[in-house]
Structures are given as structure tokens and as C-alpha cells.
Amino acid sequence: MYHWAERLYHRLPLGRNILEHQVEAFDFTDTMDEIEGLNPPADSLRAGHDAIPSIIHFIWGLRDAELNFINYLAIRTAILNSGVDEIKLHSFKLNEDNEWLKRLKPNITLVPHCPEDLETKDARKSWHVAHLSDVLRLDILYKEGGIYLDMDAFVVRHFSSLLTNPKDVILGHEGGNRWGLCNAVILARKDAVFLKRWIDNYHNFSGKDWNYHSVILPKKISSEFPEEVCALSPTVFFWPTWTFEHVAYMHRPLSKSETLVVKDDLMRQSGALYANQIAYHAWSQMADRHYLAKLTPESMMHVDTRFNLMMRPIIMSSF
């Protein structure tokens, strides 16, 4: 099944000029709110408020019991780069003999969930698995707090600077025009009011609008209740963006001169492509078929692309 953006792209004769240009246009200038949100003062916690829990939550196995190499790599980056106290993998079913899962198990906590608990509400049995995951991540964060990451989100630096943010929810802007707030990376305290508002809106959910509840709705809620959420610059989690051009930018082979520039950037910025980057969301629903599904540890060590160079230290430490 095509990702919503891919379907829309093919529906627009001038999609490259209209749709993609809108989200690719970015002057790399952060707003003051984005700068303060990324580096809150040490005394910024409100009285009676604890830091955001130092726990990362992943979700897999809602339909597919097998972890693949890219899933492994995403969790491995969290183990090595995030600086958190615990990493949880939530699932309905997992093949515990899976090669990649066995490599990860010493460093993660497996958390089983019952499908019936999630599917008995709001006619959810008919929902796409991606939308079930959308609801489950909000439920988990509302009950426990912590950091939620998609299985194609790759951590490049510590989250520690964000955990003392005075606002109860932290999201990243999607698109250079900041048109949405993406749910592929969410930081939150438990019982966050913003999460409750978000969850309540799933009562009238429609799968026809693929990304409304996951990207557009949180942006809308944040506009109405800005005191409840910290919205970060696109480069913190979601840049390059999901467009074909940007996905290709991350995965096309580099020339020798380009490789030197990227290596220098990564060296200066502690493994990140951008000065304020903490994670990179790889947009698997756009990138998997052409790029991610074809990657192996060997190819990532021998082919110089921006993604491979960013992930190469993880490969070297893992194989």
C-alpha cells in the first residue's frame, strides 16, 4: 500500500512543483520558541513537575512478528546513542527466535499487549495497522510517559537536554513550511492534557485521511493550546523530509568530495547531519521499497551515502 504522500504525489500532475516544493522549502532558521525548546534552562521545570521519564518506547509486532535489519538498526541506535535508562519494545506478537530480536534482547524490555484491548474500541478491527500503532503509542505515553520512536527513527544524539522541558509534550515539525507535527517521535509526561485531547479525537477517526490524526491534528491542537506542547524545528527529528527528492538525497551514492563533506559534518556535529539534530526519521513508507529494504550491514559499510555514513558507527559497533 502506498503511503498517503506517495498516493497524493501520483495524483498531482505537477506534484513535484506544488506538493514537494512546499514542504522542501526551508531556510534553516529556527524560531526563538524552537531554540528555547531544544535547550531549556536547567531550572525550567515547574514546581511539582518531574522530568520526562528516561524511557524509550518502540512498537512492533501488531501484524508482523518478524523484526528486520532496519528495525534492529533503529533500536540499536537508541541503545547506543540515546542515553536513556530503559528501552521497551511493545508488541502483540514477536518471533523470539528472530535473529535481530535475539541480538537486542539483552538491552531491551519486551512488553506484550493484548490485541483485544486495543481493537474493541471505535471499530478498530477495521483499521490499518499503522493507525492502531498511532493510538497505542498515545495510550502508552499517557499512562507511562517517556519517548516514543517509530521503528524507522534513528537516534544520533542524547535526548537528555529535552527531558527537563517545562511543557508536557514535545513534537517536531514536519516539512520546511512547518505544516504539521509528526507522531513518529513524541516525548511526553504521563497524564499530559495534550495527549488526552489527541486521544479523544480518535473517537471520530476516519482512515480516509491517512495523516490527519498523526500530523495535521496535533498541529491544530498545538495552535489552540500552545502552552501544552513544545514544537521543535524540522531538523531536530524530521529533516530531510518525506519527499522523493529528499529520500533520494539520503540514499544516493556520494562522490568522493561529497563524502568528505558529509564525514566532516558528522565529525563536527557528534554524528548528526545538522547542528540541532537528535534523531533522523527515515520515512520508510516512502523509502523502504527503493532503499531501506535493500540495505545490509555489508552494503552500508561499502557504499557511501548520507544515511550509510550516519549509521556506519552503529554497524561497526554491532557486527
Automatic annotation (TrEMBL):
Q: Which domain of life is it from?
A: Eukaryota
What the entry lists under Gene3D superfamilies is as follows: 3.90.550.20
Q: What's the protein called, per UniProt? A: Alpha 1,4-glycosyltransferase domain-containing protein
Q: Which organism is it from?
A: Carpinus fangiana
